């Protein structure tokens, strides 16, 4: 009886805790859309341009250096709860499309607006859109 229970757990539960599950992909999609919203918020709060960038699946948020338009070098936006730069890495078995969006002081995309970010893995596929006129982030 014990072997039957262990067998059922191995078939049902273990795949949920290994890489590339739909849960990890959905979680990363939520993380990316929140990061895009936070970059827009930081642009409006600070009055400086902010950049949301996904490259190779990893993402990061930056302020324009010395509030100089278009000058993104070494000024990462700090993460509000864990400290350090606001950035993240792609979970194993999950893929994400590349995008770079620069928000102005009003939160409107200067470049990259109208971009959709798609995340997939483990049978899950989801996306969000950054509207080009408003910068509003909408899950699709």
TrEMBL record:
Domain of life, per UniProt, equals: Bacteria
In Swiss-Prot or TrEMBL terms, this protein is called Type II secretory pathway pseudopilin PulG
Q: Which InterPro entries match?
A: Pilin-like
Please spell out the taxonomic lineage of the organism that makes this protein: Bacteria, Pseudomonadati, Pseudomonadota, Gammaproteobacteria, Natronospirales
């Amino acid at each position: 009886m014990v072997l039957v229970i262990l067998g059922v757990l191995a078939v049902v539960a273990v795949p949920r805790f290994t890489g590339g599950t739909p849960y990890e992909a959905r979680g990363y999609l939520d993380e990316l859309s929140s990061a895009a919203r936070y970059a827009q918020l930081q642009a409006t709060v600070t009055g400086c341009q902010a950049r949301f960038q996904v490259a190779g699946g990893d993402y990061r948020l930056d302020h324009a250096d010395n509030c100089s338009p278009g000058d993104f070098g070494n000024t990462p936006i700090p993460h509000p709860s864990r400290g350090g730069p606001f950035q993240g890495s792609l979970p194993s078995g999950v893929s994400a499309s590349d995008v770079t969006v620069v928000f102005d002081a009003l939160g409107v995309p200067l470049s990259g607006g109208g971009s959709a970010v798609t995340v997939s893995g483990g049978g899950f596929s989801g996306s969000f859109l950054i509207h080009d006129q408003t910068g509003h982030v909408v899950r699709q």
